[in-house]
Amino acid sequence: MTDNEDRANDEAADPVVGLLLAAGGGRRLGGRPKALLEHRGQPLVEHAVAALRAAGCARVHVVLGARADDVRARAALDGCVLVDNPEWEQGMGSSLRVGLASLAGTGSGTRAGTGSGTGAGAALVSLVDQPGIGAPAMARVRSGYRDERSLVSAAYAGVRGHPVLLGAAHWAGVAATATGDRGARAYLREHEAEIALVECGDVARPYDIDTEADLVHLEP
């Protein structure tokens, strides 16, 4: 069996696909795209993709926006499906919509040599600017997947945070309410009773890299 066949089999067996939102332009960081900020010797986007894979996601879709060509050139994203969000300046909601469309097979995406895949049962949604949330937390949330109706979220001292697992049955509803920088918040608020919370405060730190002051969290 070839490496490509092995990869195809692994992907077909895994219904949970990692969805990394990495389109932000870093407006409060002097216009530096968050995907290209350095952390532990690599761009944040590489760090986040590696965490999703270590958490068990054989497939990862990455939504790019600000300076997408530079991200493609500088970051090692082999095997990922790269999805462009031309409306990234409208906020995270637009990236979530584009990413879910790519998983549903209604959007566009490119992967070196193969093209995009579909047929996912759920998306494990992660944000590129949260490097303190790594594979252990992602794996906990991913393990909550049961079927396409699953809704699972990390929690920190009982407060809902990222990553979030969105079963495919919820994608249309999430996309319909994802505007501005709210992402899936409105939809999740409406479906609070259906969400399985997974405490992750012992294995992750949910800070964001939003301002110059936050850069202290990045490691050389």
Fold blueprint:
Elements: H1 3-13, E1 16-22, E2 38-39, E3 42-43, H2 44-54, E4 60-64, H3 68-74, E5 81-84, H4 92-104, E6 122-127, H5 135-142, E7 151-156, E8 159-167, H6 171-177, H7 185-190, E9 196-199
Parallel strand pairs: 1-4, 1-6, 4-5, 7-9
Antiparallel strand pairs: 2-3, 6-8, 7-8
Helix pairs in contact: 2-5, 4-6
Molecular structure report:
By secondary structure, this protein is α/β, with parallel strands linked by helices. The protein is built from seven helices and nine strands, in the order H-E-E-E-H-E-H-E-H-E-H-E-E-H-H-E. The strands form two sheets. A seven-stranded mixed β-sheet has the order 5-4-1-6-8-7-9, sandwiched between helices. Helix 3 (68-74) links the parallel strand 4 (60-64) and strand 5 (81-84). Helix 2 packs across helix 5 and helix 4 (92-104) packs antiparallel against helix 6 (171-177). The chain is globular, with a radius of gyration of 16 Å. The N and C termini lie far apart (40 Å).
Distance between the termini: 40 Å
Count of distinct strands: 9
**Strand order of the biggest β-sheet:** 5-4-1-6-8-7-9
Largest sheet: 7 strands, mixed
| Rounded average pLDDT | 90
Shape: globular
Poorly predicted runs are 1-11, 111-117
Question: Total helix count?
Answer: 7
What integer value in Å does the Rg equal? 16 Å
Helix content percent band: 25-40%
Order of helices and strands: HEEEHEHEHEHEEHHE
